[in-house]
Specification:
12 helices; about 20% strand; 4 domains; globular; four-stranded antiparallel β-sheet; alpha+beta; six-stranded antiparallel β-sheet; Jelly Rolls
Length: about 300
């Protein structure tokens, strides 16, 4: 999640408001423009478009976004949308007011920098199936990872403070942010389309196999064999494109399944563990806490209001 704006630093980030809806302040570096927007009254159907690839993240409050043919969706802190250039968006601000303004950032990135990062990644971190790293031509919406939040917060701090090497710092951090988003876009595409791609893409096949056999014992060697790769090749390719090891991905899928089970009032903790594919209750508890920061019992209690 992006850091909330410190009131003592607000004058560095936002210029004096000249308008109540999407008042824009821009901070420039050699490779990017950091736009920060503040809206102080409820409003609807505000149109916005950027002519460079852009990364949009919420700082405070809530928007309702209308993008292309997608259904409208709420956009809140902890979320980011990466978009290609010239894609229009229409925005509603149902809760904005002067005491609690809606704030977001939109980072426009130089296309040449993106191409440079993609070229480096294609040389150093080759993908499977002759795919190349590239900025997605479709928008993608993600929950901020720890790395993504850290890079974005660091970039904001760098660009709002005057420093003799500010442009150099901003360039390096922007490159890191682009690399993270290139990986995230590729990962999301594979995860969202694993079923459709599983007959033509080896990692999609592995993901589809994991999901359809999630309650069975799954070995990395077995997945590598099904992907027609050595264990080392498979492990490296999976970590490279999905951002986690095969075992971490299997456990993340099982934890998502367990969380759904724990919201059901008649599902015991032991039954939830089995339902998610864990053979050991103690291992289930340990993995669940590592992924969520809480125990299965505490998760159930905090989500009891959502039980069905």
């Amino acid at each position: 999640m992006l850091n909330a704006v410190n009131l003592k630093q607000k004058h560095k980030i936002f210029s004096k408001p000249q308008r109540e809806v999407e008042h824009r302040t821009a901070h420039h570096s050699e490779v990017s423009i950091l736009n920060v927007f503040e809206t102080q009254k409820a409003s609807y159907e505000f149109d916005l478009v950027f002519h460079n690839p852009v990364v949009v993240s919420m700082i405070q409050g809530k928007k309702v976004m209308h993008l292309g043919d997608r259904d409208p969706f709420e956009f809140v802190p902890g979320e980011t949308i990466a978009m290609p250039s010239a894609e229009s968006m229409t925005i509603d601000f149902p809760e904005a007011n002067r005491n609690n303004p809606t704030q977001c950032m939109a980072l426009e990135i130089c296309p040449e920098l993106i191409s440079d990062v993609a070229l480096w990644m294609n040389e150093q971190h080759t993908r499977l199936e002759d795919k190349e790293w590239s900025w997605s031509q479709r928008n993608f919406h993600v929950n901020n990872s720890k790395d993504l939040s850290f890079a974005t917060n660091t970039l904001i701090d760098t660009m709002i403070n005057e420093d003799s090497v500010r442009d150099l710092k901003a360039s390096l951090i922007t490159r890191e942010l682009v690399a993270l988003l290139l990986r995230t876009g590729a990962k999301n595409f594979l995860l969202e389309n694993a079923m459709a791609l599983h007959m033509s893409h080896r990692l999609a096949y592995a993901i589809h196999y994991i999901r359809t056999n999630i309650t069975s014992e799954i070995h990395v060697e077995e997945l590598a064999d099904k992907a027609c790769l050595s264990r080392a090749q498979f492990f490296r390719a999976f970590k490279n494109e999905i951002g986690m090891t095969p075992v971490q991905f299997i456990n993340s899928e099982r934890i998502d399944r367990a969380k759904r089970a724990l919201k059901k009032p008649n599902m015991s903790l032991s039954d939830a563990a089995i339902y998610a594919g864990f053979k050991s209750q103690s291992y289930f508890n340990r993995v669940f806490k590592a992924f969520t920061g809480t125990t299965p019992q505490a998760f159930r209690m905090s989500n009891s209001m959502f039980a069905v």
